[in-house]
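Most newcomers find our protein records easier to grasp once they have seen one. Nothing more is needed to start thinking about how sequence determines fold. Here is such a record, shown just as it appears in the course material:
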Amino acid sequence: MYVALADNQDITRAGMMYVCGEMDGVQMHRAEDKTELIEQLKQHPDAVIVVDYTLFDINDVDELEILHERFPEAQWILFSVDLSGDLVRRVIAVSPRFSILLKESPIQEIRECLMFAQRHQRYICQRMAELLLTPQSPRVEEEVKLTKTEMEILKDIALGLTTKEIAERRFSSFHTVNTHRKNIFRKLGVNTVHEATKYALRAGLVDSAEYYI
């Protein structure tokens, strides 16, 4: 089994190398960025991709869906510190080839998830499964708390700027802005730029006249 690790945290890489080293016939290779990940998928289209959705340079669920359509034989494990229930519901609706694992998961769940992926089966860790089974309460928009930086980035998103353009404007890295973007979407409970833009307009972060220019 070829495992591509799309995660930029040293501790995560070390842990995954340890777990994969216990399994027979597993090769693990790191993908530094999305370009390198795609190159690995071209060489190993049936690879297992372990990706930190929060920190790696994948913009949103739509982009994950495009990658899945391009490499339909690959198995995906979203391995992050925190994922919203809405995001996970959308991801697992894309394909049964997406599994969900949180970084707080015990090592036994990590082993099980990799074994499920090896058998082309979906795996959802216990904590996320419990979250998905919990009845959803209506979101109270007034309770959403965005930081000053997040509000500035949300305004730029609503005005149509790309993540790269926002990073250049703020003299920040692409990864930093992308992480803010994902945190904004998680806090707002939205999955698309269109939904985030509607929130920004309702909240008065963007004037409607400015938006339609």
